[in-house]
Amino acid sequence: MQDIERDVRAFIRENFILDGQAGDLAGDASLTRHGVLDSMGVLELIMFLEQRFGLKVPDEDALPENLDSVDAIVRYVDGRLGAGAPATPPAAARAS
Q: Which of 13, 21, 58, 84 is most exposed by smallest CB count within 10 Å?
């Protein structure tokens, strides 16, 4: 789960304006209430999760309880990967 958190934090830091505080963002802090993600940001996040972790995020899973904090995202991805969720190969695997 640490790798998931590291990758999610890196994605947020590299793609969204955080005033240099990505590392300080509490795991349970709401990404929407803190102005990190808007609706387009959520779509970018979903595309990142699907490409990086090789999973499909169904529309019904695009909910705040799954995607509105780093902790929630990590739990969601870990749960989907651990549950043997229908997955697509990670981008790197598809390219080879």
A: 84
